[in-house]
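Homework help board

Subject: predicted structure for assignment chain

Our instructor gave us this sequence and asked us to write out the predicted structure in token form, then describe one feature. I got the tokens but I'm not sure how to describe them. Can anyone check?
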Amino acid sequence: MRSLRRTPAALAAAAALLCVVPAADAGTVLRVDGSEVTRAYDPSVPSNGAADMGRMPAGPAPKAGSAQKKKNKKKGPTKGEKAVDKALKSALKRRGISRRSERSYRKTYRLARSRRDRLRGQRRKELNYVVTTLEAIALRRQLTASRMKPLFLIVQRNAQFWLRSPFPGSRGYVQFRGSQMLFEYYVGEGLQLQPLANFKKANSLHGACVKPTAGVACNRAALAKLLDEMVATRVKRGKFTAWEYYFDFGGRPPWISGMATATGIQAFGRAGQLLNTSKWRKYVRAAYPAFTTRAPTGVLARGPMGGNHYLQYSFASRLYIINAFLQSIIGLYDYAEITGDPTAARLWRAAEPEARKELPANDTGDWSTYSYRGRESTREYYDLLLEFTAGMCHRLKIEQYCTTTKNFRKYIAKPATLTFAGPATATKGQETQIRFNVDKLSAVQIVITHENGKTSLNKTATFRRGAGSFTWKPGATGTYTVTLSAKELRTGKGLRTRTEPAEIVSQ
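My token output:
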């Protein structure tokens, strides 16, 4: 076991990192009304932790359109412009879009390019990203008729926003007049239409109607409008319809998410029950094949235990993120329970045994991992996983989920256990390893005091679970008292423990 940090300053930095919160405040949104932008609190806006797409997978793809960043020295349209023009003409010819839509898309595209050329600095960079992403997708012949509505909407909103609006916080939400949809700001990638955040918002709006909360009004009209808007942004992907993402997140766009899709299915089911309508069921049925189509087109993959795993990212077929997987199953389960739909029931049952087998591998004995054989969860993702294991326990009454939920709750409440492991003797002037065991990621402090009252060593470092040690060189003979203290770093609650003082005799 090696020490991860050796100085108090580094320790403080580590503790701050482990307790990091998103830059954007929960429940806040920038509302754009023409040239006026106001910051408002909206209880239906999900927290970043609840609606975040997670950690960007390792090895991000090159930014879309990176090859076109230099100004074109030749006169005439660029390859990107030609590709967009060709896609629009083709979609119109095949009657995939109307003449009116084609004119509107061209106008949006010209406006965005014109404003980009007028902007400077970071604003130009944000708008340039969405423009070049559109062009890159067109160059790959993926700018299909069904993708035009969400892609040109993203371009339109960014052209409107970056002209003079204040910058949102990183991962902050923006909402435009006349719309219930949320756009999320990814630094360097502009405002992006984020399906998961919008479906989470729909669930929040639903919750305000079925579980009345003081100061939070039920707004059925807003719920219906939001889901109708999401229906309008669905696209044809393979042999099914989907809600796609159009920015780089370790994989090249467009891509889809099993978690976002299942949360959308859950939201349509809940809203349909509340509003007594079945109008959205056909869109849910059209989205089901995402879970039976192999990645990268769909989100189905062979899990690490050999069963069906629903991916968080369609482009990352070997990244098994446990909280996203459980939420995918929960979304399908809830829809099946609400509507009695047999396909939704088959889909969650096809994947649940794999989730049950994967879950123990994500329990470290004192915390959770974010993904199978991956790094430990941040506190935010730990809480999210705890919420989902509790949800699975409540729904299915399966011991594995209930036991894991109890363990995760225990890990939060229990201070670190710290034991002194020797030695009992040391030699003056020679380095000695003072050994100990700690059962949680902790800041460990050692204080060694000579029998004359002088402090011989006072040091703090960060250690993971298991055996650890400090190096100490006694400066004199005699009896030394060793006191070890630990502070668990991940909960942020200041849980502390301290060993009984031990003695080392220096010869």
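Reply (TA_rk): Your tokens look well-formed. For the description, you could write something like this. Residues 256-260+274-413 form a domain with the Glycosyltransferase fold (CATH 1.50.10.20). That's the kind of observation they're looking for.
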